[in-house]
Amino acid sequence: MAVMKKKGGKEVGAISTASLPDVIFMILFFFMISTTMREMTAKVKFELPKATEVQKLEKKQLVSYILVGEPSTLELRAQFGTAPRIQLNDSYRELPEILDFVASERNNLNENDRAAMTISIRADRYVPMGIITDIKQELRRAEALKISYAASQGE
Amino acid sequence: MAGNKRKVQEVNAGSMADIAFLLLIFFLVATTMNKDFGINRVLPPYQEDQDKEMQVKERNLFQVLVNRNNAILANSEEIDLSQLGARVKEFLLNRNNDPELPEIEIKDIENLGRVPVSKGIVSLQNDRGTHYEVYIAVQNELTKVFNELRNDAAMKYFSKKFDDLNEDQQKAIVAAVPIAISEAEPRQIQR
After folding, report:
1. Is B135–A21 a contact, with Cβ atoms under 8 angstroms apart?
2. Rounded mean pLDDT of chain B?
C-alpha cells in the first residue's frame, strides 16, 4: 500500500541550486564591505572594559594600537610569566620602545594627517593602572597626545 | 555535425558555489568586524619639570581620587561611583552662584554671543594599583556628565541635540562646555 501510494503521489523535484552561488556571493560581498583586514594577531589576552559614552574611532589608517594584557597562550606565559605585557605591532615590547614605535607610525602617515594620529590603548580590564600611566607618560614624551581608551559598548 | 562543433560549449557553473564559499571563508578568517570604540582623550603636553603644578583656585577644583582598593574619594569624601556624576554636575553648574563652587566667567563665543562658562576643573588621580576597569568607569561617568552638559547647552541655545548640530555650532558648544578633566601626575595615594 505504502509503495503504491508513493508511486501515485507527486514527485518532489530536486531543489534548484542554480541561485546558490548568488546567495553566497551576496554574503561574501557583505563581509568584504563590513569588515577590515586583520592587522595583527593579539599576543596578549584582553577583555575590554565596558563603557556607555564611547565614540567610534573614525579613519582607521590614523589609528595605532597599543595592546596591554597578560600573555595569551600557555607557551607565552611559560616564557614571559603572567605579568601584563605591552604589545606593539606583533611582539612584546618594553616601555622605552614606545617612543620609537610612535615615531615610525607617524612617519608612515601622510604629512597632513600626522596631527590627527590617534593611539588606541586596548588594555585588559584587570591590568593595574601603573602600566597604563607609564604608557601615557611615554606617549606624552612622544608627543602623541590624542589617545582613546578602547572600551566595548554596554553597561 | 560541423555546425554543432562550432557552437561554444556552455561553461559549467556548478562549482561556482564552491568557489564563492572558499572566498567567503577566506574573508571570514582574514578580516575583523569594525568594532573600534573608545573614550577619547587628549593628554597634556610633556613637561620636563614635573613638580611645577598648575595653580588653580581651590573653589575651581573638584578632586577625584581612586585608590588601590578601587574606592572613590570625591573632595575627600568617600562616595559610590553612581553618585559621582551628580556631584560633578552640581559642581560644574553652580546654579546658585555659591562662593564654594567654581567661578563662572562670561565669555564671548562665536555663534553664541556672551555666555557663562564654568571655570571648574575635575582633577582625576589614580593609584598605580587601581584597576583599569574602575578607572575607565570613572572616566565614563565624567564623560557622561560633560556630554549631558553639552546636550543641555545645545538644547538651550539651538534647541537641538548636540549630535544634530552642524560643525560650527558644535564648536561653539565645545567652547562653552570644555571637557575640563585634568589628569595629574601619578602618585602613590595612601588610604
Report:
1. no
2. 80
